[in-house]
């Protein structure tokens, strides 16, 4: 695990504008990933971007310091070299088991602003699929993230299904439902995303009608049929919007979609006569804040939703303690499984070395002190010696497994060298294996 690294940021550490500056539009990610991998200097990479975080997971070379990877990530995503200390101040970094643990927590929603958030699992799965499509996910990252997604599925059993908000979408829905209670009427969903889909299924029972607005007609029409609503193209809606009481915006665009002209038209056409509520969950916001203020349009941006989620977070930590324990246990099992897999050739060679030592000693005895033993007696002694050799090998091998799991290949190499330099000197394949593992994953 030592070569796995993660460099990232979330909206609890920095504002949404900074996170937005690191966000690659969805439509560009498959094309940008190989370039990002080259900029960072790695072969395996997965780029995870959600409404409130950006994480770049990668497999390093075992030699480059994580601080250098952090600088490279900053430069590649921001488009300029960081000022002295800027990358360290703005980006967080994890390496080795800490990086794997972080990926487990992210996928499980236990590092989300809204603890136990379910949408992030889908977003991590999509990120892995994009990396596979781009040919940069690699064997190790693919394995680790697949395990993380399995753990995330199990974590959901500890997340209460009712009586609490389990996602940022739940918070957005509260704003929308309050508005519909005050002024019932139609609702527009701008963008086809996990957020709009989840909210749409709830709003289908609350709003008088739903309107799905999207740039891509196929996706927009599919969601409209799913929600039993109507479809409008984004351009048509911006030029001549339908009369709605509320608008939910959740797109992958970095552009302003609802500027002063669009908001003015929306305010003029609201059935109740009151300017519609805009809940904008896009990062960056697709709605012009200054224009909304000038027109008296109530705008709820992601920063407000995250602030509410943060207040919930402290109360939820205790409730989700069993989920955190599940993550810790899963991480320990993964560490041991990877150590076992990668150490198995070395353990096999150690077992062979013990058997060879016992066999060579018996051969000398059969030439001298035990030369009178017949063939049957010698075979029985050989079998006994092999059993004894396995028993003698059991304790150091068990210790080596634990040593590899806890401290990695470098510690194993030190142990073997201290235990007997002749073993490493006579077994160049073991030395090569340990040197390779020290630069990879055990």
Structure, briefly:
The chain has helices at 16-21, 26-40, 66-78, 86-90, 97-108, 119-134, 139-155, 168-182, 194-203, 217-227, 234-239, 260-269, 289-295, 302-319, 321-367, 375-407, 409-419, 421-426, 428-438; strands spanning 4-10, 44-50, 53-59, 92-95, 187-190, 210-214, 230-233, 246-249, 277-280, 299-301.
Descriptive report:
The chain has 19 helices and ten strands. The chain has helices at residues 16-21, 26-40, 66-78, 86-90, 97-108, 119-134, 139-155, 168-182, 194-203, 217-227, 234-239, 260-269, 289-295, 302-319, 321-367, 375-407, 409-419, 421-426, 428-438, and strands spanning 4-10, 44-50, 53-59, 92-95, 187-190, 210-214, 230-233, 246-249, 277-280, 299-301. The strands form two sheets. Strands 7-6-5-8-9-10 form a six-stranded parallel sheet, sandwiched between helices. Strand 5, helix 9 (194-203) and strand 6 form a beta-alpha-beta unit. Helix 5 runs antiparallel to helix 15 (321-367), helix 15 packs antiparallel against helix 19 and helix 17 (409-419) runs antiparallel to helix 19. The longest helix has 47 residues, at 321-367. The radius of gyration is 29 Å and the shape is elongated.
